[in-house]
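Exercise 7.
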Amino acid sequence: MSFSLETPLSTALGASTAKTLDRAFGMTTVAELLGHYPRRYADRGELTPIEHLPIGETVTIVAEVLSTHPRMMKNRRGAMLEVVIGDGIGQMSLTFFAKNLGQAEWRAKELRVGRRGIFSGKVSVFNKRVQFAHPDYQLFDDDESAHRQADALQDVPIPIYPATSAMQSWQIAKVVGVVLDQLGDVHDPLSDDLRKREGLLTAREALMSIHRPHRRADIEPAVRTLRMHEALVLQTALLQQRNLIRSLVATPRAAASGGLLERFDASLPFTLTADQQRVGSEIAADLAASRPMNRLIQGEVGSGKTLVALRAMLQVAESGGQSALIAPTEVLAAQHLRSITKMLGPDASAELIPTLLTGQMSAPERRRAALRVASGQSLIVIGTHALLSEKTTFADLALVVVDEQHRFGVEQREMLRAKGTAPHAIVLTATPIPRTVAMTVFGDLDTSVIQTMPAGRAGISTFVAPLAEHPEWFQRVWDRSGEEIAQGRQVFVVCAAIDTASDSVEADDAPPPEDVEGRGPRWGVVQLDQLLATHPVLGSVRRAILHGKMPSDEKDAIMRAFARGEIDMLVATTVIEVGVDVPNASTMVVMDADRFGVSQLHQLRGRVGRGGVPGLCLLVTEAEAGTPARERVEAVAATLDGFELAEVDLELRGEGDVLGAAQAGAKSSLRLLRVVKDAGLIAYARDIAADILRDDPMLTGHPGLRVAIQERVSDEDRAALSKN
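Solution. The predicted structure, written as tokens, is:
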């Protein structure tokens, strides 16, 4: 029996092993298993002698079992097995823990004296002896062939796979081997002409060489081939999505002379920036066309993206079309409703009836709002994920606006679009996206950029408060905040956690960066508010707290009060990260600033300096100078240019982290491709994909590419690629 890439792992490996692989890595097919590439390779010449093993590092050695000693543990339940191994020069111990003595004895039989193999683990010291605790190992087949196999390792690289405690590297290598032994024909995404022109391997050869290289020289051609596969498959899938949208027929929504849009523009007390005018013209032309618009608008914090989106809504409303704006949080949705209503003025608001629809509204409120939406009475609808509910229907949904795209996936965007007949779509993001990432992640969208800022902004000054070197600056941060409040201004204070005592971290906060030495946030909203209550000045100011676990109506009431100037200092989590507009807020204090990413710090900073009041951003950190965490904070303080920061972010974090869930997801279509290093390849693959689809839109003449897209780029993958 031969296997194809579509063969279920339960068929290829049996139900038990398939279940383990699914649980550990989310794998269900042969294609997904063979797409789990080795993370590195070891070979005999590079294997470290026992006597030179570096403490604390993960290493691989070839050694022989010298003794085994299974026994029950004295001071805790269970048993353990201690194995002594040697490489002919030095010795070390392997320690395995087991639930009972029987399990320990079973492993001792496997690791019997005289067996040789490959052992890999993290080096530690116990009782003055070097050891591996629960190492990954792979024994040679039998004693007679041990020396022959060891000698063969001199030239044959040993694949080391990303592993878990349930499925170690040698076990993955073993099941990969089972599948490769019975692998049949493999669909090739590349045509014969393209493959030969680029000097690449066949798909089957590439899979064999990356998992079973005979020598080091076999690996590079395999990786180069599979990178091209990933680039071409992804770019073809994105262009297919774009072409699918463009093939639909949309109702043209041209602006009328003297209509809502023209009257709105005439009522504005300011002139649109050059970028707003240019992007507005692009949108107006898209809306007047008979195919759906699918446009990404990138713009700095405070650059006026919402105004541009509102003008599109007005153009759509002139023909009776409805617009739906979906926001990631209740606070932001409510903020959008207030700002849009204010911009429209009483007359236009009465005509358009902007309506809020969120999951936290009371049942009667939600029913009334849903009725206004379903009847078409409301032409501008603003909400959260509640807009995606099956119960939410529209009379004539003509425009979908997705705010802060990095909080949503393609699936949510398309779910909302499905509630209309080929509606237009605008995607907004204040998180600047490097060109290479935009090309990889948002390749199905046309892109517009707003870089110029509206006139009258006083600007923002950003400073790092490095408590590691200057602990006395902690007090100065609060004195400076008090000075701003004394001048009639308002202050935001942001913490990474709600309550450090209970480890309550906001669900939508960025996870703690790996370089923050494993400690949790020093300050939570609860703890900091308690401290500020004892401050000689700030203890008596009008202070409030805000976080994501508070009831929706309470959060909204606090934000309204802060916007009205009734609260001097707001101590909050990143629930205020996007969209909150309080022109009188002059100061942003970010506690544990090293726990936030570059783009998130830039977003937070954008909450101040939005009016005529100069903005001040204080980034408080205990990170040591020279650490990656400190570099990240200092990079934000060094520039206000979000697009420059996006490139800095790539350099500091690496493209794997920038792609977020796209890289972390087990089923991600990006495994070998790196969007920075492989930018040229991605662009080249996009050109090839465009040529292929122009001549063969259904891929009937490219069956291998069609099958590869079906296998590798699921809806979940595309959604993951959008969650940046």
